């Protein structure tokens, strides 16, 4: 089966709500429980990612569902302008372990390398017991940066650690240098004229 990624748009909101509800039924993955997956949560994520980040989805071949999604976005204040945060990825339980998560991440990171020289850092947090996700992120080039002790109340056992991870864009270009270069170029051309 061949799958392709595309950028999400606001008309995807119902399909994304259904996808997140299916994924949240499996305990130990995303932080939110099924009752916390609301239309407001989905729309807010979509708007922030479309306006100030990236949201990619994979459609079900020969169907009308969305079967996988990844999103991340910039957080205020402006000192964080070089960072895409709040990264979440979900793959429909029926389609997991078939390479869709890898396809989404590779598309996202390639897009950032090729088109987003303003982004230096992509960051995410995974609960320590989500070994599958952490192993997966490490293979993609994310590095563990520490641990937030007892951050997750998993409601069944004790509190568990949340693991912050980051990936760096080798093509990042400091934006003030870009602006300065553009300014000096225009000063230069002014002088020549
Ligand atoms: C985590 C998730 C996004 C991965 O997507 P996926 O499509 O299943 O992943 P892929 O098929 O592309 O496999 C990616 C990697 O997962 C890892 N993996 C798969 N099964 C694993 C397992 N049982 N244990 C440990 N790692 C495992 C491997 O590193 C694999 O790489 P490989 O192909 O080199 O072996 C998906 O399982 C998911 O949506 N889980 C529920 C939601 C969730 O946990 N989101 C992340 C919150 S931080």
UniProtKB/TrEMBL annotation:
<keyword id="KW-0012">Acyltransferase</keyword>
<keyword id="KW-0808">Transferase</keyword>
<dbReference type="GO" id="GO:0016747">
    <property type="term" value="F:acyltransferase activity, transferring groups other than amino-acyl groups"/>
</dbReference>
<dbReference type="InterPro" id="IPR000182">
    <property type="entry name" value="GNAT_dom"/>
</dbReference>
<dbReference type="InterPro" id="IPR050680">
    <property type="entry name" value="YpeA/RimI_acetyltransf"/>
</dbReference>
<feature type="domain" description="N-acetyltransferase">
    <location>
        <begin position="3"/>
        <end position="170"/>
    </location>
</feature>
<protein>
    <submittedName>
        <fullName>N-acetyltransferase</fullName>
        <ecNumber>2.3.1.-</ecNumber>
    </submittedName>
</protein>
<dbReference type="InterPro" id="IPR016181">
    <property type="entry name" value="Acyl_CoA_acyltransferase"/>
</dbReference>
<dbReference type="Pfam" id="PF00583">
    <property type="entry name" value="Acetyltransf_1"/>
</dbReference>
